[in-house]
Design goal:
mainly alpha; single chain; 0% strand; 6 helices; 112 residues
Length: 112
């Protein structure tokens, strides 16, 4: 491992100018890789040897679910006007006191 600037510069000088890199292509990845991309998919839990979950997830992923939850909360004008973060209980059983949008905001499914 390079411990000094001189060691790093010596290592970098041996990398070259990138002339051996493959040429850039304007073709979409699907054209460049043929049918391999069309066949690619995310494996299911069963494919990986796991049993399917017994219950539906509390927070299903995705943009559509995040937008659905946001629209449902914002359509309740009385709830929105009365919402006060310090008075909420994130561990409430059933429908949460909070908006429930945190995971959708954190993972970029819904943005402000």
């Amino acid at each position: 491992a390079a411990l000094t600037f001189t060691d790093s510069a010596t290592t970098a000088s041996g990398i070259g100018d990138g002339a051996s890199s493959p040429p850039a292509s304007d073709e979409p990845a699907s054209a460049a890789h043929g049918d391999r991309l069309a066949e690619a998919r995310i494996p299911s839990l069963a494919d990986l040897g796991y049993a399917p979950p017994e219950h539906a997830p509390l927070f299903p992923g995705g943009e559509q679910e995040g937008l659905r939850r946001m629209a449902a909360k914002l359509s309740r004008g009385d709830w929105v006007r009365a919402f006060a973060k310090p008075k909420t209980s994130p561990t409430a059983v059933g429908e949460p006191d909070t908006t429930g949008l945190s995971p959708y905001l954190k993972f970029g499914c819904v943005s402000s």
